[in-house]
């Protein structure tokens, strides 16, 4: 059965690979892509989303620009990881496909109000500002949401922007708190999983060996993206965070996790944005999400290579 999804994103090389995976997979139907400020400012994330759709040969995809800043805080970006454009590496031409006029949040609300109950899965790959704004402004849309599958957080791996916080949650912890306390079905891909999905040389070579523009760009993007993490972690490659969200929708058997309680820290100066995961169930707080802990990395990269090879 095909799942209708909305991808909410702040591309980002790993976001780009996630979009390519979704657009090459018949198991998911991308209703639209909503851009949010995160890895780079909104003017670049909406542009990058369109660049990726054109690379995939899907200029018919609807792309909307959403919130340009977190709910209550100044924007923190990650050019130090993704480069000044967010998609540094080889330069692609500016997109010619249109950006839709409607604000992303308005479109999310309109689309979900028109959808049957439990029929749309939201796939946030960046800060949760757009999603939190939509469900706060229009709580009635919750009935249409089958599940939210997001990349964010970390527990055993700690944080990647502060000692305790993962970037997406840290940028807008208030939005994350709204989503995690929404009562909606939630599946979380934290750093604990994504740090096991590393772009090793053989895995990048497999993209390059496709001999297509998509394969070449994916290899070049991951080459650029991994230099930062390899230096930081001393690892043999970089974690491919965001494609884990789409891979889960296609092959949930690649992942294992637990249904537990996760709370978002919004007040502490020391641990702002921390995802406090009750992995060992030591509190009586009710479980609110499925928090993934492991991935079949070889299966994940085999899926990526097989699907991306379908694009041009």
From TrEMBL:
**PANTHER family under this entry?**
INOSINE-URIDINE PREFERRING NUCLEOSIDE HYDROLASE, URIDINE NUCLEOSIDASE
* Annotated Pfam families: IU_nuc_hydro
Q: Which residues form a coiled coil?
A: none
Which ranges does the record mark as transmembrane?
none
- Key words of the record: Glycosidase, Hydrolase
Domain Inosine/uridine-preferring nucleoside hydrolase positions: 5-301
Q: What is this protein identified as? A: Nucleoside hydrolase
Which species is the source of this protein? Octadecabacter dasysiphoniae
């Amino acid at each position: 059965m095909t799942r209708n999804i909305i991808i909410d994103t702040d591309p980002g090389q790993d976001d780009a690979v996630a979009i390519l995976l979704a657009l090459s997979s018949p198991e998911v139907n991308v209703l639209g892509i909503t851009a949010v400020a995160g890895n780079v400012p909104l003017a670049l994330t909406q542009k990058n989303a369109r660049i990726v759709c054109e690379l995939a040969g899907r200029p018919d995809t609807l792309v909307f620009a959403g919130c340009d800043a977190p709910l209550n805080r100044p924007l923190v970006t990650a050019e130090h990881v993704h480069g000044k454009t967010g998609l540094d590496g080889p330069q692609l031409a500016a997109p010619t496909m249109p950006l839709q006029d409607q604000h992303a949040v308005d479109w999310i609300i309109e689309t979900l109000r028109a959808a049957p109950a439990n029929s749309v899965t939201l796939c946030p790959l960046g800060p949760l500002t757009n999603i939190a704004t939509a469900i706060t402004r229009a709580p009635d849309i919750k009935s249409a949401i089958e599940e939210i599958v997001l990349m964010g957080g970390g527990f055993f791996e700690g944080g990647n922007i502060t000692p305790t916080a993962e970037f997406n949650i840290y940028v807008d912890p208030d939005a994350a708190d709204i989503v995690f306390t929404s009562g909606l079905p939630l599946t979380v891909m934290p750093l604990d999983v994504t740090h096991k999905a590393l772009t090793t040389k053989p895995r990048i070579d497999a993209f390059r060996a496709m001999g297509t523009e998509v394969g070449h760009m994916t290899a070049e993007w991951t080459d650029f993206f991994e230099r930062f993490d390899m230096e930081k972690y001393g690892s043999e490659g970089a974690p491919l965070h965001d494609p884990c969200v789409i891979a889960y929708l296609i092959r949930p058997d690649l992942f294992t996790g637990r249904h537990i309680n996760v709370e978002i820290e919004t007040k502490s100066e020391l641990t702002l944005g921390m995802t406090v995961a009750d992995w060992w169930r030591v509190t009586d707080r009710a479980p609110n999400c499925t928090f993934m802990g492991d991935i079949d990395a070889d299966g994940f990269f085999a899926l990526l290579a097989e699907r991306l090879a379908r694009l041009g």
